[in-house]
Write a structure and sequence with these properties.
alpha/beta, Nucleotidyltransferase, domain 5, 5-stranded mixed beta sheet, 10 helices, binds zinc ion, ROK_cs, ROK, ROK family protein, ATPase_NBD
């Protein structure tokens, strides 16, 4: 199976076996223009002289329209309504399936990573923004247009600050990397980015610690709400901010404990990613394997 992961900073591709083994992979930085040319070269690199894949799974930054097969990644201004599924299908001559990169992250962690054995799982990618994906009763929940799982824009304070999405009080406004930094700087911290903020929190800087406490509480509100709505038993957290480690996960565990009420919500397990950057590729491959299996079960269908 050929898996492709398309993001604002990098493009990745891999050949992935039925058991999840990565046979070959490659990554390149996302160019400002000519993204399709870079992707074409990348796919050629991983498929050259290899057993031909049977299908392609694509995880892409969104938003997207999965019905039309088009993507409009926020950080890739040269792609607006770009017909990604059709173009990759033409390029490879293979059945092609498209989902969100965070949806693929969740599915990959459920298949091979920290969510292995979970019945229903929420994957959260905390980075420049906050993305998410759901696996419910073992199946990915993608949504009619492929936008299910956008948990970064779940509202944790209806009287809160206006979010970039136009909504109000979204968890992303409190807990994404740039927003952790923004709050810390407004409260007297000096530093360039979320990585420096995490390092200072690790050294006991009170403002840095308070920034992670505040972000963790917002994440906990979102997590408890999703657990209540969808009975997820596991939440896997990845993305650059998750690399902060215990300065994020310790206050997060405490906050979930404090805000959650119902027994099945309190039982939710919150864990860091084990696959890291490979999770989205694994999930894209799994999506393609799932689709190949359903095609096989319906002869004549594509
Ligand atoms: Zn929002």
């Amino acid at each position: 199976m050929l898996a492709v992961d398309i993001g604002g900073t990098k493009l990745a591709a891999a050949l992935v076996g039925r058991d999840g083994a990565v046979l070959r992979d490659a990554t390149v930085p996302t160019p400002p223009t000519g993204v399709m040319d870079a992707l074409t070269a990348l796919i050629a690199t991983v498929t050259e002289d290899a057993p031909p894949p049977v299908a392609v799974g694509i995880g892409s930054a969104g938003p997207m329209d999965a019905l039309a097969g088009t993507v409009s990644p926020v950080n890739m201004p040269s792609w607006r309504g770009f017909p990604l599924r059709e173009r990759v299908g033409e390029l490879t001559g293979l059945p092609t399936v498209l989902a969100g990169d965070a949806q693929c992250f969740a599915l990959g962690e459920h298949w091979l990573g920290a969510g292995d054995g979970s019945g229903s799982l929420l994957g959260v990618v905390v980075s420049t923004g906050i993305g998410g994906g759901l696996v419910i009763d073992g199946r990915p929940l993608l949504g009619p247009l492929g936008n299910a799982g956008h948990v970064g824009h779940m509202i944790v304070d209806p009287y809160g600050e206006t979010c970039e999405c136009g909504g109000r009080g979204c968890v992303e406004r409190y807990a994404s990397g740039p927003n952790l930094v923004r709050w810390a700087v407004a409260n007297g911290w000096h530093g360039p980015d979320a990585r420096a903020l995490a390092a200072d929190a690790g050294r006991g800087d009170p403002t840095a610690l308070a920034a992670f406490e505040r972000g963790a509480r917002a994440l906990a509100a979102m997590i408890a709400s999703v657990a209540a709505a969808a009975e997820v038993d596991t939440v896997v957290i990845g993305g650059g901010v998750a690399g902060a480690g215990r300065v994020l996960f310790e206050p997060l565990e405490r906050a979930v404990d404090e805000v959650a009420g119902l027994a099945f919500v309190r039982a939710v397990r919150v864990v860091p990613t084990t696959l890291g950057v490979r999770a989205a590729l694994a999930g894209a491959a799994k999506l393609a394997w799932n689709q190949a299996a359903s095609r096989a079960a319906r002869p004549g269908a594509r």
